[in-house]
Amino acid sequence: MLSSHELLGFMSPPLATEVLTYVYESDKPLYRAALSAVAEARKLRPVFLERQPRGERHAAMLQTLTRPSLDLVTGNLIRTWLLKKYNSMLCDFLDALGIAHKEGVVEDLPAAMDDAKLRAAVDALLTKYPAEIVAVYLNAFNDMNEANWPNLKAVLEGDKRLQLGG
Questions:
Q1: Of 157, 100, 96, the residue nearest 121 (C-alpha)
Q2: Rounded to two decimals, what is the model's pTM?
Q3: pLDDT in tens, 109-125
Q4: Alpha-carbon distance 134 to 71, whole Å?
Q5: End-to-end CA distance of the chain, in Å?
C-alpha cells in the first residue's frame, strides 16, 4: 500500500497542487504547519517560503512533502482535503458498504468487507467521481485506517482505472 508521501508523489501534478491549494484556501493553520514542516526539512526559515510566489512555493512544498520524514504532515493534508472537499464521495462509499458514519468519519470499521459489496461500491464511485480522485481516496482509506482490507488492496492493485502515476 502507498503511504501518504508516496500517494502525493504518484498523484498527477495538477491534483497534488489542488490538494495544497485547497488547504491553503480553507485551513490556514494546517497550511502554516505544513509550510513550517517543509521549511524545517529544507533547513530554511518559513518566511523564506512565504515570500516566494505561491506557485513557486507550492512546487517546492510538494517536492519536499514526498519525503518519508513528512508522511504525517502529508497525511494530514490529504485527509483534510478529502474530508472537506470530497465529503460526498466518502459518504457515498461508506453508505454503499453499509457502514455507519458521521459525515464520512467512521468510529469502527469492520475487520473485513464482502467482495461483491466492495466491488459495487468502488464501481459506483468511479461512475460518479474522477478516477484519480477515487484512487487517491481508496488508497488513503486503506492506508490510514486500521482495517486494511486485503480485498481492497487487491482491487487497488488490479483495477486499471485506479492506477496512479500513469
A1: 96
A2: 0.90
A3: 888 899 999 999 999 99
A4: 20
A5: 17
